[in-house]
Write a structure and sequence with these properties.
Order of helices and strands: EEEEHHHEHEHHEEHHH
Shape: globular
Strand content: 5-15%
Largest sheet: 3 strands, antiparallel
Number of domains: 2
Bound molecules: zinc ion
Number of helices: 9
Structural class: mainly alpha
């Protein structure tokens, strides 16, 4: 059974308040919202709506609207995880957006759900494995996209019969693999500096980030630095290795990892936080890669 929602990792209800350990915050909540959350954790969406409607004598449509609005607000604030949209909802969204465009109205596209996943920072090993588990699906999707673009460019170059790189068929596979591992290592770099802190990974659409309680300025700078710097260091090290080996098909590895050094400039969220001296709880990795 798919319950209507689940409290996100490190979120709990205590004494009538929503407690978020990853932000070190307590959020006051009204009794109706708490009832929706408790029922939503145990029942499917339609059962929650029917139960509350029976208990409060409110029309089903009103209860459904209130429940979905609350759930969407809680999800946008990373307090609850919600079930993934099914294919029916996706198609409805597509048809609705197309209809709006045909009628000349701005198309409303449902924003992607936000999913929060646990990160175990008790040791470096567990920080790496839990970060890899949380980030791998999206990282692999990025990697696959890069592989396809590489393969397409190579196919075009082959037709033009111009580039000696076209014979390096492994290039696109290596590029995709490097992108996937670079994203995982970037986030793991941030997680390594958060030892013992309650931390979660947050994914929304194509964006990833870590959420953790606010830290002192120096510690927060170190966390922001660690992601891009770890990948950059690996990039520089592999530059030497690849030039020593002279293997052209390995070139994407140093290139993609070194590119992460852009994360130390204003071009990325990590860099802007560092320069502005902003201690920011969520370090979105739009910069990767
Ligand atoms: Zn980052």
């Amino acid at each position: 059974m798919k319950s209507a929602l689940s409290l996100s990792p490190l979120v709990s209800i205590q004494d009538g308040e929503i407690v978020d350990a990853a932000r070190a915050q307590r959020i006051k909540s009204n009794p109706t919202a708490l009832m929706f959350i408790v029922l939503g954790e145990n029942l499917r969406e339609e059962e929650v709506v029917r139960t509350v409607s029976e208990q409060t004598d409110m029309p089903l449509a009103t209860v459904r609207r209130d429940f979905l609005k609350l759930r969407s607000e809680l999800n946008a604030n990373a307090l609850v995880n919600v079930p993934a949209r099914n294919i029916k909802e996706f198609l409805w969204n597509l048809v609705h957006a197309a209809g709006s465009l045909i009628q000349g109205r701005p198309a409303v596209w449902l924003s992607p759900h936000l999913t929060r996943m646990p990160i175990d920072t008790s040791s470096l090993g567990s920080a790496f494995t839990s970060t890899a588990r949380a980030t791998a699906p999206l990282a692999a999707l990025f990697g696959l996209s890069v592989s396809l673009v590489f393969a397409a460019v190579q196919a075009l170059a082959m037709q033009a019969d111009a580039d000696p790189l076209v014979n390096q068929h492994l290039l696109s596979v290596v590029a995709g693999f490097a992108v996937t591992t670079a994203i995982i290592l970037h986030e793991a770099g941030h997680a390594f500096t958060l030892k013992g802190m309650p931390t979660v990974c947050v994914r929304r659409g194509m964006r990833l980030g870590l959420l953790h309680p606010p830290q002192a300025k120096l510690k927060s700078d170190l966390t922001a630095l660690a992601g891009p710097l770890l990948c950059g260091a690996f990039g520089v090290a592999t530059t030497f290795a690849v030039s020593f080996l002279g293997s052209v098909w390995l070139l994407p590895v140093p290139l993609i990892f070194s590119l992460q050094l852009v994360g130390l400039t204003v071009l990325s969220e990590d860099g802007r936080n560092l320069i502005a001296g902003r201690p920011k709880a969520v370090s979105w990795v739009r910069d990767a890669p």
